[in-house]
From TrEMBL:
Its EC number is 1.-.-.-. The lineage of its organism: Bacteria, Bacillati, Actinomycetota, Actinomycetes, Mycobacteriales. This is Putative FAD-linked oxidoreductase. It comes from Gordonia insulae. The record marks R324 as: Important for enzyme activity. Substrate binds at R404.
Length: 543
């Protein structure tokens, strides 16, 4: 298949960069509609529950001290110190379902006092200096798609909250074609970064489902994982270097690809979620644009059989570029609703589980790798369903987030969570988390559909990604909080990690602390004190 034959809606190179306007997801030109099949499946009652319009959410007057505001205006210019209603709303929290529900309920309490848009690394340094001096909390903001409360700091004890939107740091700084690396400014959205790289014949290969909104600084700060992680790695695997602005000055990391010069401090900054400072530049590995790709669906009798097949590929190779497996429930829902959560083709065997593989690269290499992957999957009991389901997944893969708003409008609660563990514990983890979610929501009188898939695999283990759908109660925020707490407890009890790629934010903080222990937490806090002595960078997030 020639990849240039794709329609604009489906090709990741042709998606528009979307400036997200809370609370709804994505490009207003292509709003989500609830397909009838999905409405019937989830039992939507047809009652509209759109909530308070963003313009009607009441915000507190901006609290910023006058001196701090004047200093920011002097540093950046009046134009880049913004406190109009809509800008504050559009920087309030992130895009988890509780975030959306809170805004729909009219709760604007986490709105920043001011949004600033620095135009350079030095501007960012100056903003941090001013905020430290006036004890104003600072929230770094790239795409604003956090789903773990990473954009809602604890403002207790601070004189105000400033969100630093990196939108103006949007350049491709350099490509080193010999080393195959590119240096990108942190405010570049994923789509725009890909456009700039493709114009030079390269791809980053990072396509999270939030691709239309999220960006380079956010990817690095959260250790994001894209849908092609089997082939290109997780975002932190791609990073060669970073520049971090802190209240005490600049740290530049990545003098060489691998070094024995002490601990690799890049891994202190990757996943730091804005608590150590603001990443302004990231150097990543890039790859020649693939000229050929094959996407294909595979049927497995059950989830365990499919998981064993994925493990065989992850441990003994070869690795496709995309590798994912839906469990029985997710497979059944997707087959019933091809435009829905993941999108597959209704053709092929019913029951069992659907795996999707994608192989991309240079033509001959793709043909050879595809043949080798096919042999492994067949040995593991898989049956090819052909390119239809694979292509259907590929072309629908960025649409699922658009479904959440119409589902919420229709009184349906829908939310996702993810975790990661070793292969030997994966089956138990799935059972425990599914039971925790099912039992909690059933006890609330809202029995859920719980779906699960694997989409990121490693030789030693894999992540599990759960999607939960059920009717809303009168207090859906509390309803989900109870289910999420039960799931977090199950993840801890199973010895898994609280997150594979969504990060910690505020929502996972307590579980994360239990996961790493007091001494490790003290060490992290000591680093924060060294770089951010006033503690203004994203207080209450991560540590
Ligand atoms: C519909 C949907 C689908 C998603 N799918 C995926 C997926 O497939 N894979 C995945 O990994 N994640 C996914 N996410 C989660 C989210 O998109 C990722 O965490 C993403 O990496 C966040 O990027 P962002 O640019 O939006 O960051 P933001 O939301 O702006 O920030 C995320 C966190 O990092 C901090 N931060 C932001 N920029 C910087 C910076 N320059 N320096 C320091 N700190 C910074 C913020 O303060 C915040 O704590 C999804 C989210 C949604 C809503």
């Amino acid at each position: 298949m020639n990849i240039h034959a794709d329609s604009p809606r489906t090709d990741e190179t042709a998606l528009p960069v979307v400036h997200l306007r809370r609370p709804r997801w994505g490009d207003p030109a292509t709003p989500g509609e609830l397909p009838a099949a999905a409405a019937a499946l989830v039992g939507a009652d047809g009652t509209e529950r759109r909530g308070v319009a963003p313009d009607d959410v009441v915000l507190a007057e901006p609290q910023l001290p006058v001196d701090a505001r004047s200093a920011l205006v002097e540093a950046l210019g009046e134009h880049h110190v913004i406190d109009d209603h809509r800008s504050r709303i559009d920087h309030t929290r992130g895009y988890s379902t509780p975030d959306i529900l809170a805004l729909r309920s009219g709760d604007g309490t986490d709105a920043p006092d001011v949004v600033v848009t620095p135009g350079s690394h030095d501007d960012v340094l100056r903003v941090l200096e001013i905020c430290a001096e006036h004890r104003v909390a600072v929230v770094p903001f790239t795409g604003g798609t956090s789903v773990v409360g990473g954009l809602a700091p604890d403002r207790t004890g601070f004189a105000g909250v400033v969100t630093v939107d990196l939108a103006r740091l949007d350049e491709l700084v350099d490509i080193d074609e010999i080393s195959r690396t590119a240096t990108l400014q942190a405010g570049l959205r994923g789509v725009r970064a890909e456009e700039l790289l493709r114009a030079k014949g390269y791809t980053l290969g990072h396509f999270p489902q939030s691709y239309a909104g999220a960006g380079i600084g956010g990817y690095a700060a959260t250790r994001s994982a894209g849908q092609s992680s089997a082939g290109y790695g997780r975002f932190d695997d791609m990073v060669e270097g970073m520049v971090l602005a802190t209240p005490r000055g600049t740290i530049a990391l990545g003098a060489a690809p691998k070094s024995a010069a002490g601990p690799d401090l890049r891994h202190l900054v990757l996943g730091s979620e804005g608590v150590l400072g603001i990443i302004t530049e990231v150097t990543v590995r890039v790859h020649p644009v693939p000229d050929h790709r094959v996407f294909e669906g595979w049927h497995f009798d059950d989830f365990d059989a499919g998981a064993a097949a994925l493990r065989a590929l992850a441990q003994d190779g070869p690795m496709p570029t995309v590798l994912r497996l839906s469990d029985e429930m997710e497979t059944a829902i997707n087959l019933a609703d091809p435009d829905g959560a993941g999108g597959t083709d209704a053709a092929g065997p019913t029951g069992g589980c659907l795996a999707v593989i994608g192989v991309e690269g240079a033509h001959d290499e793709v043909e050879a790798r595809h043949a080798a992957v096919t042999a492994v999957l067949e040995r593991a009991g898989g049956v090819s369903m052909g390119e239809g389901p694979g292509e259907s997944w590929r072309t629908g893969r960025f649409r699922a987030p658009y479904l959440r708003d119409p589902l919420l409008d229709a009184g349906v609660l829908v939310e996702t969570l993810e975790t990661v563990t070793y292969w030997s514990r994966l089956a138990d983890l799935k059972v425990l988390v599914t039971a925790a979610l099912t039992d909690t929501l059933t006890a609330a009188g809202t029995a859920p559909l719980v779906m699960c898939h694997i989409s990121h695999v490693y030789p030693a283990g894999a992540s599990l990604y759960f999607t939960v759908v059920c009717p809303q109660t009168d207090d859906p925020i509390a309803q989900w909080a109870a289910a999420k707490t039960a799931a977090n407890d199950a993840i801890r009890a199973a010895g898994a990690s609280i997150t594979h790629h969504h990060a910690v934010g505020r929502d996972h903080r307590a579980t994360y602390h239990a996961e790493i222990g007091d001494l490790a937490l003290d060490a992290l806090r000591a680093v924060k004190v060294a770089l951010d002595p006033a503690g203004v960078c994203n207080p209450g997030i991560l540590i």
